[in-house]
Structures are given as structure tokens and as C-alpha cells.
What does this fold into?
Amino acid sequence: MKNVFSCVSAAAFAVALVAPAVADNRTVKGEVIDLACSISKGDDGKGEAHAACAMACARRGNQMAILTSDAVYLVEGDYAANSNAKLLDFVARHVEAKGDVVARDGKMTINVASMAIAK
It folds into this structure.
């Protein structure tokens, strides 16, 4: 009986490791940033003063993210496709993004379904 329990536990653990993360559809509010600049420049890598640099990075296809008061959400999906084409109108602006949020490898991602300038 002990061996059966061990095998079942090991199988459940293996499935948990390879199973995809569950998406949580929600709204994320924050500033659209260039991830690399935000990490390397800290406060100087966001906001209006950094908008031109962030736009250049977005056009090159750099990884963009939404910086909230408590997390960073990497932007994935249609808004990140084609060198961030759908995201360009929102770079360095505060937005409300709706989409599927997934925690994966210690990072939060959002597959944006819609985005609007925050009110």
C-alpha cells in the first residue's frame, strides 16, 4: 500500500510540474514600460521623461510590460506581436489592460485582449 501511495504521489507531482499554469482573466492597471529600461534605470526608466526612449525600444520589438503599484506584468499575445504594433499608442501611458494573467517561472504575464488609457 505504501508503494502505491508513493507512485500516485510521484505521478501527481510530475503532472503538476508539466501542467500549464491556469489563466486568470482580469484587469491590470499601470504604466506601459520597456522592461529592460525599467530594470536598468529604475525610476528613470519610466514616466513621461522616458517616453521617447520607451517608444524606440517598443518599435524595435523589445519586451514591454505593465508596471503596477505591486507587480510587473509582461505583455504577451497580439499586443506584443509585430514589434508591439498594437501597444505603441499606449507606451509610457497609464492603462487598463484586460486579459489572461498567468504566473509562470516566477513572472507574471498578461495576454492582453483589450487596452484603454486609464481614467
